[in-house]
Design a protein that fits this description.
alpha/beta; FAD/NAD(P)-binding domain; 7-stranded antiparallel beta sheet; 22 strands
Length: 515
């Protein structure tokens, strides 16, 4: 059935496309103000919490597990591959699967990069609100903002992680307890990379979406694939979506895109019409451009002495490498994983899928052999990651194929400066962690497709940005974007807390506009 049905009833105050961190936080803030909010979500309401035994390729099964159903076409340095990006698809978006690291950007990420129209001091108020709602635990970063509020303390970490903390401090570094949204209830598994079915891990669904629905002012429609935003002149007039094979339209006084930095710009490009021939809000030609990820370098470390591994493991961070040698690097964090067989195999699969051997699919199962050998050699090593800032280049972009409108296409070139910063980072890690046995898990860094951002950057100049300082499209009066697309720089830490804080900030603007 393919009829086009116009939903009955008066327009919603706000229609939000996507229920990840940005969309859910915005809807939460507006529903608590009494605004009528409709959430449209492509994924299921409650994804399964099980850990899949291997790679899942069936689209329906991926949706059941809260995973984006289709492979992403990645054209990196001119070479095309297809792989499954680390993107969630369920009520709560990618936060259903994330590791709940919820760290603030540095003040100079806002005030010194030249791209952010909002200063850190303004964002700090929303950071504090987001930390409170998400129940963030952690200790103060010795090198961070001295004015940041104290967070509730986390429980003691695993003994081996305390050994690492002591080892890092003796090396002259400044470790602290990573800021996480994990409640550590009895029997907590931390649920890194899988859905938490006990609401122990703070995600967009249990922290923002469910409280929004509980107000009675919000409604969620799951398993709805949005296909376009209708517009006339400077007004977004309706959201078109497909559910159970039926194409429907719903109207909102304000329309908000929060489908993620890879999908929101795609919807804008697919919504071209006579008034917006290059795509919605794309007079600047920048929709989909300036795509950034993070560059991650994973390293196995051995502690200076043996210690127990029971207890919280996603626990350690330090920012001694955030800026070094005149370059912008990033934060160093414990991943929360040991270098066991399953984790090494997962890492090798990711390396294979993104490399030149990806076309030789028959070789993939044989990766179990080096994974088993590596696991025996690594023993009780723990995995750490350096999260390196990616820089915004207009040629790195999201594209669409009108013949396959649901497909995500990424064009991305690795620039020489990123490779140079990666070499600098490895040199620093070797020098500063010289007393610890270490092994880099890849020949070079990898692009973290789980942290896309920047594809609808905000700014004060309509010629160089897509959105204004309040994340409203320069070209339309009632279209906002509140996922990671808005970010003009990627910083060197996980983006989730900044996405939530920004959405809470923008809620005040939308509420005032509604009158």
């Amino acid at each position: 059935m393919t009829a086009d049905i116009d939903d009955d009833g008066s327009p919603w105050d706000v229609v939000i496309v996507g229920t990840g961190m940005g969309g859910a936080a915005l809807g939460y803030a507006l529903a608590r103000r009494g605004r009528r909010v409709l959430f449209l979500e492509r994924g299921v309401l409650q994804p399964a919490s099980e850990q899949p035994a291997g790679e899942v390729t069936d689209p329906d099964e991926r949706l059941r597990l809260g995973l984006w159903p289709d492979p992403v076409r990645m054209i990196v340095n001119g070479r095309a591959t297809e792989s499954y990006a680390a993107i969630g698809c369920a009520a709560g978006g990618s936060t259903r699967l994330y590791a709940a690291a919820l760290e603030r950007f540095e003040p100079d990420d806002f005030d010194s990069t030249g791209g952010w129209p909002v200063p850190y001091a303004e964002m700090a108020r929303s950071y504090a609100e987001a930390e409170d709602v998400l129940n963030v635990l952690g200790t103060r970063d010795p090198l961070g903002d001295p004015g940041a509020p104290e967070l509730p303390p986390p429980p003691p970490c695993a003994p081996v992680d305390q050994v690492f903390i002591d080892d890092f401090a003796r090396a002259g570094l400044h470790p602290y307890r990573l800021h996480v949204g994990i409640g550590y209830r009895p029997g907590c598994r931390e649920c890194l990379g899988v859905v938490c079915d006990r609401a122990c891990k703070s995600d967009a669904a249990n922290s923002f979406l469910q409280p929004a629905l509980a107000t009675g002012h919000a409604e969620l429609r799951a398993e709805c694939e949005v296909t376009a935003i209708d517009s006339s002149g400077r007004t977004a007039t309706a959201v078109a979506y497909r559910r159970n094979g039926v194409l429907r339209r719903v109207h909102g006084r304000v329309v908000v895109l929060a489908a993620g930095a890879l999908r929101s710009p795609g919807l804008m490009l697919l919504s071209a019409n006579a008034d917006h021939p290059a795509g919605l809000a794309n007079r600047s030609g920048l929709v989909g451009r300036h795509l950034m990820f993070h560059a991650s370098d994973w390293v196995a470390l051995w502690p200076s002495r043996k210690a127990g591994m029971d207890g919280p493991r996603k626990t350690i961070a330090l920012r001694d490498f955030y800026r070094a040698g005149g370059g912008r690097l990033g934060a160093f964090q414990s991943v929360g994983l040991t270098a066991g067989y399953g984790n090494v195999l997962m890492f090798l699969y990711d390396w294979f899928d993104r490399g030149a051997l990806a076309r030789l699919r028959f070789l993939r199962p044989f990766l179990r052999i080096p994974a088993a050998i590596a696991a025996k050699l690594f023993g009780k090593a723990s995995i750490f990651a350096l999260i390196m800032e990616d820089l915004p280049y207009p040629g790195n972009r999201v594209a669409v194929d009108p013949a396959a409108p649901g497909r995500i296409i990424v064009h991305y070139d690795i620039h020489p400066e990123l490779a140079e910063r990666s070499r600098m980072a490895r040199k620093l890690l070797r020098e500063r962690l010289g007393g610890l046995r270490k092994f880099f898990l890849r020949p070079d860094f990898m692009i973290d497709t789980g942290h896309p951002c920047g594809t609808c950057r905000f700014g004060d100049n309509p010629a160089t940005s897509v959105l204004d300082r309040d994340c409203r499209a320069h070209d339309l009066d009632n279209l906002f974007v509140v996922d990671a697309s808005f970010m003009p720089s990627s910083a060197g830490v996980n983006p989730s807390l900044t996405i939530a804080a920004n959405a809470l900030r923008v809620a005040g603007t939308i509420d005032a506009q509604l009158g």
